[in-house]
From TrEMBL:
<dbReference type="InterPro" id="IPR006094">
    <property type="entry name" value="Oxid_FAD_bind_N"/>
</dbReference>
<dbReference type="InterPro" id="IPR036661">
    <property type="entry name" value="Luciferase-like_sf"/>
</dbReference>
<dbReference type="InterPro" id="IPR016169">
    <property type="entry name" value="FAD-bd_PCMH_sub2"/>
</dbReference>
<dbReference type="GO" id="GO:0071949">
    <property type="term" value="F:FAD binding"/>
</dbReference>
<dbReference type="InterPro" id="IPR050416">
    <property type="entry name" value="FAD-linked_Oxidoreductase"/>
</dbReference>
<comment type="similarity">
    <text>Belongs to the oxygen-dependent FAD-linked oxidoreductase family.</text>
</comment>
<dbReference type="InterPro" id="IPR016167">
    <property type="entry name" value="FAD-bd_PCMH_sub1"/>
</dbReference>
<feature type="domain" description="FAD-binding PCMH-type">
    <location>
        <begin position="340"/>
        <end position="512"/>
    </location>
</feature>
<dbReference type="Pfam" id="PF00296">
    <property type="entry name" value="Bac_luciferase"/>
</dbReference>
<keyword id="KW-0274">FAD</keyword>
<dbReference type="Pfam" id="PF01565">
    <property type="entry name" value="FAD_binding_4"/>
</dbReference>
<dbReference type="InterPro" id="IPR006093">
    <property type="entry name" value="Oxy_OxRdtase_FAD_BS"/>
</dbReference>
<protein>
    <recommendedName>
        <fullName>FAD-binding PCMH-type domain-containing protein</fullName>
    </recommendedName>
</protein>
<dbReference type="GO" id="GO:0016705">
    <property type="term" value="F:oxidoreductase activity, acting on paired donors, with incorporation or reduction of molecular oxygen"/>
</dbReference>
<dbReference type="InterPro" id="IPR016166">
    <property type="entry name" value="FAD-bd_PCMH"/>
</dbReference>
<keyword id="KW-0285">Flavoprotein</keyword>
<dbReference type="InterPro" id="IPR011251">
    <property type="entry name" value="Luciferase-like_dom"/>
</dbReference>
């Protein structure tokens, strides 16, 4: 007896007839309505009576919301693997992780040759399929930027760019019967998908043994390979009415390890009975037998993946329902890193709801190593990942909901990105000042400050927050505001990373129908003079004008250059021109352009995938007011050879209107936030030149841009009175110092 412990799934195997194109579509929709899990279609591209299977799958994906979709099986000789890899990944992304890949080496060669495919022998067909799997897996692997090169005899790529990665671990299932195909299944595939009608008595057991042996030889656990079976009503195991099928399917699950039963029928009544009567009864009976036998169930990882687990993390104790990614998983490369830093966490937790965040946090507290909390992962400091610890990633809490039109109150999941928020509220003529890049996560920015391109007119992001939902260290869920736990509400606006896991933010948006967005490129050969002139103009400009200046040190083939990104926060082009033209006098202009656009046209939705790099080395400071001396000092930093990039962001105007004691972000008398980045991993050089040249002009810092670990930086981030209040909050809400990675405030200090 062989039971691999796979969760049982049930699906349909439909005929893609084109006589009435909507018939197979309606049967697919019925499959979902009947409570089944999977829709598959035959794939015979040479058959003119059939719809093209891939086109049909994409159409059905748009008509359904839950079922997974696959060809049964796709004809590889007529579908080049490099293109197929991108097609499957695209469908998986568009459908929310519902695409699977059934593959076959091809059987009807006369018809395929008629379509222009060179004929292969059976052995060549297996070789071609093996090469195709390498191409497909390689293109899905975005953990490296190295172009893919696979030098097969039948399928090869030479320098193909990788990606996109699918939304989930797409299963590659092979339709296999003969020994070489079975060995290939065990060595490289995720599933074995035969049809019962092509099997003789004992073939399932013999096939399982062959697949298992090949898996073991390849260093895999045989349970990694799902066993699927196409079944036809009225034959084999499905004789008699549907009510008589249950015992046979239970036996197939417990004796032959079948985990997925695919019903080959186009009869709606049989599909409905399969979902309503058969599947529930089989699940119940198999669950009872497994409980009695103590059968291990759930996901299975290879020996190689298990070897990458970190000692001190109880991987088998992850709370039920919380998605978790380990170092050996295919998705690990997508979640290990932040924008600037390549991390190596021992486990990444991906909760979908606030209750799952509670469970994930309780679990994480019991594990070894640091605990990182991540919303978007764009934070320059890189503190939302770690090495060897646990990362709690709230990226799936990404909803954007208008809860009050009159006050423009918007409830935003902490895992949303500001680009998606801007797009969601733009049609109402609303905007929220929120950084300068759409990939930044809501949770990090809305608990730190939020220096944005509308800031001089509308203030910081935190100045418009009216409530937080937050999970505290003890697992309790609080909704805090100016009226409910006001002291905690104060602390979350500026030091939220020290106090809990924010799951949603209520913010009152501003009315911002359209803005003027200008970009200017300057020769920065004399960066000190450029910075001083630009800063003097910006700090004295009308509040509608907010400008950010980015200066690069240049390299062998070019000198220093600067780019100013400037927003005039209205569509009044005459006023905009009058305010923008003086900025052209800041330095030698190399390029300029301006346009009227919604704010969402500047902060647009972008991909959130980060693959990091070396640990970032940066220094940050807040400049009370620009002066020639301050400009010269910053120019010296850029030209020192220790800084590769210098950034200045305007934080005057409305930011200064808020009293210093109103939020835990207390720096309310400054005109600019300044950040310098090193071009090397060693930070000693940048620290030396920053401390000597820039630091004397600064008063405080913006903590999301600072990576200096020296303890005195905490005093720069939080003035003494602010720090005293935050320590009191820590003693109340986080006495065990669970949240100790982001400018940690020790409650016992």
């Amino acid at each position: 007896m062989t039971d691999y412990g796979h969760d049982l799934t049930f699906g349909t195997f439909l005929t893609p007839t084109n006589a009435d194109p909507q018939v197979p579509v309606s049967l697919a929709v019925l499959t979902e309505e009947a409570g089944l899990d999977l829709v598959t279609f035959q794939d015979h591209p040479y058959q003119p009576r059939f719809l093209d299977t891939w086109t049909l799958l994409t159409y059905v994906a748009a008509r359904t919301t839950r079922v997974h979709l696959a060809g049964n099986v796709l004809n590889l000789p007529l579908r080049p693997p490099a293109v197929l890899a991108r097609a499957v990944a695209s469908l998986d992304l568009l459908s929310g992780g519902r695409a699977e890949l059934g593959l076959g080496a091809g059987a009807f060669w006369d018809a395929m040759v008629g379509m222009g495919v060179p004929r292969l022998t059976p052995g060549q067909g297996v070789d071609a399929l093996s090469e195709a799997i390498d191409v497909i897996r390689g293109l899905w692997d975005t953990s490296t930027r190295t172009p893919l090169r696979v030098g097969g005899s039948h399928h090869s790529v030479d320098g193909a760019k990788r990606g996109p990665a699918p939304a989930h671990d797409v299963g590659i299932w092979l339709g296999a019967y003969k020994p070489r195909m079975l060995r290939l299944t065990g060595a490289k595939a995720d599933g074995w998908l035969p049809s019962e009608g092509y099997l003789q008595p004992g073939d399932l057991a013999r096939g399982n043994r062959a697949v298992d042996a090949a898996a073991a030889e390849a260093g895999r656990d045989p349970r990694e390979i799902r066993r699927l079976l196409n079944l036809t009503p009225g034959t084999g195991s499905l004789t008699g009415p549907p009510s008589a099928w249950v015992d046979a399917l239970v036996s197939l699950a417990l004796t032959d390890g079948v985990g997925t039963f695919i019903l080959g029928t186009d009869d709606p009544s049989v599909i409905e009975a399969f979902g309503a009567e058969v599947a529930p009864a089989v699940r119940e009976a198999v669950a009872a037998e497994r409980a009695s036998a103590g059968t291990a169930t759930g996901p299975v990882r290879s020996a190689a993946a298990l070897a990458r687990r970190v000692e001190g993390i109880a991987y088998d104790d992850v709370p039920t329902g919380v998605d978790a990614v380990e170092p050996g998983d295919r998705r690990y490369s997508d979640v290990r890193s932040t924008y600037m830093r390549r991390g190596a966490p021992g486990l990444v937790l991906l909760p979908r709801t606030t209750s799952e965040v509670v469970d994930a946090l309780a679990y994480a507290r019991a594990q070894r190593g640091p605990l990182g909390v991540r919303s978007g992962g764009h934070g320059i400091s890189g503190r939302s990942t770690n090495d060897g610890g646990v990362v709690l990633d709230v990226g799936r809490l990404s909803s954007v909901e208008v809860v009050d039109e009159a006050t423009r109150r918007v409830r935003i999941g902490a895992g949303a990105t500001w680009g998606s928020v801007a797009a969601a509220i733009a049609r109402r003529g609303w905007a929220i000042s929120s950084g300068d890049y759409g990939g930044v996560g809501v949770g990090g920015l809305a608990t730190t400050g939020g220096i944005g391109l509308l800031g001089r007119l509308h203030g910081l992001t935190i100045d418009h927050v009216v409530a937080f939902e937050v999970v505290l260290a003890d697992g309790s869920v609080h909704v805090v505001s100016a009226d409910a736990e006001p002291e905690l509400f104060w602390g979350l606006r500026g030091a939220g990373g020290n106090l809990g896991v924010v799951t949603s933010v209520d913010i009152e948006a501003s009315e911002v129908p359209d803005v003027v967005f200008a970009q200017m490129v300057f020769d920065a050969t004399d960066p000190g003079a450029l910075v001083a002139r630009w800063g003097a103009l910006v700090q004295d400009a009308p509040r509608e004008l907010t400008s950010f200046l980015h200066l690069s040190a240049g390299g062998r083939d070019r000198g220093p250059m600067a780019q100013a990104m400037t927003v005039w926060a209205s569509a009044d082009t005459e006023a905009a021109v009058a305010a923008l033209e003086p900025l052209l006098e800041a330095g030698p202009v190399l390029d300029q352009r301006a346009q009227v656009t919604p704010y969402a046209g500047i902060i647009g939705p972008v991909s959130k995938h980060h693959d990091g790099g070396a640990p970032p080395v940066s220094r940050s400071g807040l400049l009370p007011r620009m002066s020639p001396d301050a400009g010269a000092a910053l120019g010296s930093v850029l030209l020192s050879g220790e800084a590769s990039l210098l950034q200045l962001r305007a934080v005057g105007g409305a930011v200064n209107d808020v009293p210093a004691s109103a939020t835990a972000y207390a720096h309310r008398a400054h005109e600019f936030s300044v950040t310098a980045f090193a071009g090397r991993v060693d930070r000693a050089g940048l620290d030396t030149v920053w401390d000597r040249e820039a630091y004397p002009h600064m008063d405080g810092l913006y903590l999301s841009f600072e990576t200096d670990p020296r303890p005195e930086r905490l005093l720069d981030a939080f003035p003494p009175a602010t720090l005293d209040r935050l320590r009191a909050l820590k003693r109340t809400y986080d006495p065990d110092h669970v949240f100790d990675q982001n400018f940690p405030i020790d409650p016992s200090a």
